[in-house]
Amino acid sequence: MTWEIVALVVLAVVVIAIAVVALERKRRSAALRRRFGPEYDRAVDEHGERTAAEAELRERLERRADLHLRELSPAARDQYVAEWRAVQARFVDEPRESIVEAERLVDRLAADRGYPAEDRLEMLAVDHPRPVDDHRVAHEVVRRGDRGESDVAIDDLRAAFVRHRRLFDALVQDGDGRDRSAPTGSRRPDEGTARRNGDAGRTRA
Question: Which of 191, 37, 44, 182 is nearest to 124 (CA)?
């Protein structure tokens, strides 16, 4: 009888331990999903299963901890904002070209902030997962044009430009988290410019 009680106690302990481990794994998975957002789903799709994806994301967090990012000086920030405004001004006449240039500008800004070239998007996604997801979508719009697909409408280009802008905003803002690229209370210039271009494109069509 005593051994039966001991066996039941041991079994109960094992069951509890398994449950605790399962709950901890679930908690860690939920934390990674919250941290990475759409990047979590992308990693799972790439690896084909959750365990490998989560291991890769945790490894990213470790590499990100070793990075030493640089804040922009006020002069550098102003220069980037001026360059962005020049790029967005081209959108009306050269929408696709301006999107390509916007992507290059974002890449240069990320490099100046200290994100490494070899895995730049992966490291950026640790800090800015949703803007990076927007950036990836915008890049795919340009690739569709490069492949000669004819369904790249002006609205797609307009949305791509605004998506690039979100990562630009995330990188150009300073330590207090405020967006320095547009005056407080004003509409973002790229949205107005893109909207006008979209209207013009529809008129021409």
Answer: 37
